[in-house]
Amino acid sequence: MAPKPQLLHNLAGTAAKRARTMTTDTPMADAFSKYADYLNDLNEKRERVVKASRDITMNSKKVIFQVHRISNDNREEVLAKAEKDLEAVSNQHISRLIKELSGSDFWKLRRAYSPGVQEYVEAATFCRFCRTGTLLHLDEINATLLPLSDPSLEPLQINVLDYLLGLADLTGELMRLAIGRISDGDLDFAKKICMFVRDIYRELTLLVPSMDETYDMKSKMEVMLQSVMKIENACFSVHVRGSEYMPLLGSDDPTSFLLGVPDIET
Fold first, then answer.
1. Lowest-confidence range among 31-35, 181-185, 193-197, 257-261?
2. DSSP for the chain?
């Protein structure tokens, strides 16, 4: 049997009265209000962290481009300028990121700042290799960040995963540098780069299978292998096929891509 119209009218009126008399001043409403404020603050912080990460990425790339200008004639000048620019990235942009993340659970925002940190690691290790021919370790990078942090708060430290991802990107820049050095006739430095990149690839090949988060690393390992092969092929071609260009070796012909390469012993 269908309900009577009068009964439906009474039920609707009762519900309306109850709705008008409800109050939002309840423990549950207060809790949800706090959650909303927390999420809003977290989203705003994430936006600031993303902006800082982009600035770090952009300026770190400028450092890398500066290092690529290196040659036998301007090595000290180029590296000094690159190291000065890298210090500026640390003091201006890394410090701003640290200020945003200090005292908070910065692991929650790792995806927001990870690209910038990787690029910074790439630039710092690139400068170190071109200066000394050695690898800049994670502990050394984190030691330079400690003075930028508030001693009373937990300092922001670059984690191992971001360091390894930045190190994987370093091999691509070293490949480009090696090709450029071969073009300028600096075969010894190109061979040194080749051995260094081989060592990095070999060690990471042993490490990656035991890592928890391997998706990004596996994709970079494929690119790293391509970089190793390109350097090896370039060095191999000049060493083996250099005899085809014997009339040009050691000459002053500016059109030769082997200008300045020493004669190959027979």
1. 257-261
2. -PPPHHHHHHHHHHHHHHHHH--S-SHHHHHHHHHHHHHHHHHHHHHHHHHHHHHHHHHHHHHHHHHTT--TTTHHHHHHHHHHHHHHIIIIIIHHHHHHHTTS-GGGGHHHHHHHHHHHHHHHHHHHHHHHSSPPPHHHHHHHHGGGS-TTSPPP---HHHHHHHHHHHHHHHHHHHHHHHHTT-HHHHHHHHHHHHHHHHHHHHHGGG-S--HHHHHHHHHHHHHHHHHHHHHHHHHHHGGGGTTTTT---TT-TTTTPPPPP-
Phi, psi of 72 (to 5 degrees): -65, -25
Q: How far is CA 154 from its chain centroid?
A: 22
C-alpha 124: how far from chain center: 10
Residue 8 has pLDDT above 60, yes or no: no
Number of residues assigned to the chain: 266
Question: Quick one: which of 167, 147, 65, 45 has its CA closest to 106?
Answer: 45
> Is the pLDDT reported for residue 170 higher than 80?
yes
| Residue 138: closest CA among 122, 155, 159 | 159
Alpha carbon distances (Å) from 250 to 86, 193, 253:
37, 23, 9
The span from the CA of 100 to the CA of 250, in Å, is: 56
Indicate the angle between helix axes 160-183 and 138-145, nearest 10 degrees. 110
pLDDT tens per residue, range 54-107: 999 999 999 999 999 998 889 999 999 999 999 999 999 999 998 888 766 677
Cα separation of 119 and 61, whole Å? Answer: 7
Average pLDDT over residues 115-144: 95
